[in-house]
Amino acid sequence: MATCYSIQELMRMISSAAGSIADTVSDREGHQFMDALLGASRVYVTGAGRSGLIAKAFGMRLMHLGMESYVVGETITPAMQKGDLLVAFSGSGETHSITDICKTAKMVGGTLALVTSRSESSIATIADLAVVLDSRQYDDEGLSSDFAIRQITGSHRSGADYNPKAPIGSLFETAAMIFSDAVILELMDLRHTAKDEVEDNYSNIQ
Amino acid sequence: MATCYSIQELMRMISSAAGSIADTVSDREGHQFMDALLGASRVYVTGAGRSGLIAKAFGMRLMHLGMESYVVGETITPAMQKGDLLVAFSGSGETHSITDICKTAKMVGGTLALVTSRSESSIATIADLAVVLDSRQYDDEGLSSDFAIRQITGSHRSGADYNPKAPIGSLFETAAMIFSDAVILELMDLRHTAKDEVEDNYSNIQ
Amino acid sequence: MATCYSIQELMRMISSAAGSIADTVSDREGHQFMDALLGASRVYVTGAGRSGLIAKAFGMRLMHLGMESYVVGETITPAMQKGDLLVAFSGSGETHSITDICKTAKMVGGTLALVTSRSESSIATIADLAVVLDSRQYDDEGLSSDFAIRQITGSHRSGADYNPKAPIGSLFETAAMIFSDAVILELMDLRHTAKDEVEDNYSNIQ
Amino acid sequence: MATCYSIQELMRMISSAAGSIADTVSDREGHQFMDALLGASRVYVTGAGRSGLIAKAFGMRLMHLGMESYVVGETITPAMQKGDLLVAFSGSGETHSITDICKTAKMVGGTLALVTSRSESSIATIADLAVVLDSRQYDDEGLSSDFAIRQITGSHRSGADYNPKAPIGSLFETAAMIFSDAVILELMDLRHTAKDEVEDNYSNIQ
């Protein structure tokens, strides 16, 4: 074991980078997102790859809060309708299969909320609202010269050879998970959810 | 919208709490975990609920690095054998279905690594090695009096009425994701993985 | 290509074998199963391996009919409660993880219906009702001497070296799928479900 | 309970209908499909809704035979490459998300095999080979006047108001499962797979 950083050091770097991304979320974005959630009949979540796993983690918590939520592609997910909200997690905003799902959501009269790392993209163009978790903002602070940080942020993928479909950096997903959990805390507060109610919904069979 | 904290503030709290958990990981735990990964023929991952999603996120990255990894319960997961490693994510270390899977892994001659928030549990007892991401350590710093922090850490669940099966706090899962990503960066360094190789394994069909 | 049978011939053999299994279902079993479905608040489905896929196919159709159904282990599956029904698909009735889930269902006050190929098993013992799709009945007709039929029915696994966890024969799963579809047709008839209603629930987003 | 048919009768009807579909598979289709499987480096499977579950059941069996198979969308599915085969299950051959996946498979140099109920469709146009399980052939035999049979075959959806995205009839999926199992038996024969080898691959951890 002769790497530059210990696992603990890398964990602190990632946490710190994720925290700094909070600064890139505007109050307006936060409010719009909360309003969309509170106003939706049902909430559908989607995402590809690791972003899809974060989408599921968010959808599961919504269910714990007693909200009706569904994961696109799971077995018992019913047809989406007018009044329903789709929350799409896509760092690039360009993932082909997710773009298609977003188009469908709009076509059936649903509302589309995007959680992304780029303010401009195919999905951002059709989204009703977007929350931008901008890991590139972080790069601007001059920390991107370091290998580990570049891996974390995926910043070496930016520029001419930027491939939005395949960032190595996992920072968007971590930031998206932290954003989701912050939203859940906010929802619990706004809905005056008692923890006992939440616990009643925890899966007792798995 | 009249909550105590903005989403941005909650995100910073969660990130900071997750970062402080890095301090609870010992060098020995980190080394043992890396050695187990590097020495395994194949790596299986498992976890229930949201921990299971983190397990999948980790397994996906291992595949990206060119390692042979499988998620317990997915379609094409083959029988586990001697020489294989099971990485179980369980905050409580007591989840019944995961305990059963861990016992099976040991029975077929596999190695069992546990990522958990408690040093003592049913799974910890039979694990070959464990990484403890102790969110209760964080509580000791006196921050647990605040509602939001208590929700984040799930610390209000500790004590007499502690129910290891249902912590509200999502902090373990966030810390486990950050730990997993730190491990991936360490693996890339140790294996001299070029980012091009990683990209070649990214799913191009989803 | 010099095999004993063409794919078409094998398809006819499998279909014929599956059809003959219908004879092993008693009227009482059929009625009990329909009554349990019609009386349940919510229907949970489970199964391991390929039986789990048949369970999902059944759960999806129940959703199409407008019934509230959940797959054990999927993201938004809430806690099971008294009045809920668990339909477990297990050929052997002994699969360890499914047995555990069945015990939990009983413990929380749920009703347990088993779809299986053996009338006696660990799960059968605790089930409130069972539907036996007995592929071994078919073997008794003297057709089991043939390689293909033996593979289809898995009958070579019976007897002393019978391993309930690993039958090669896929016949149980095929019969279970056909049984499930028959149940769905019966439900549509009993509930006077118009096909338009069913179509409204088809996923429009996947 | 005052329905026209018992569950047993419905099971026999479905089995019989599925068996008759075997007649619509040509020898050439069967041979091409087997050759594609035997010549592939890796086999990817995909399908939407219930067809996706049949695709998984097929992919699982391929793994049991020791072949390298992957389910599109699962966690550890690597990038598809030249020499790989995609087997798509789509009754209509028009499902949007599956069409996209098929186009990607062709674009990266993969071979595309389609299992479908219609000889002409968007996917059929780009597929290298197709196996047509034509449930409408069955309708021509004059049996479609009956309610149950119409539900089974979905034939009432044909004609002017035919909606390829939402057939109620589950017959295609049942026939596709039986076709898949026939293919597996054929593969075992051609590859001289001993049942012991198959059993060694059965999941022992789930």
TrEMBL record, chains A, B, C, D:
Pfam families (UniProt xref): SIS
Gene Ontology annotations of biological process type: carbohydrate derivative metabolic process
CDD domains: SIS_PHI (cd05005)
Database matches in InterPro entries: PHI/rmpB (IPR017552), SIS_dom (IPR001347), SIS_dom_sf (IPR046348)
UniProt cross-references to PROSITE patterns, sorted A to Z: SIS
GO molecular function annotation: carbohydrate derivative binding; isomerase activity
Boundaries of every SIS domain copy: 33-193
SUPFAM superfamilies: SIS domain (SSF53697)
Family to which this protein belongs: Belongs to the SIS family. PHI subfamily.
Name of the protein in question: 6-phospho-3-hexuloisomerase
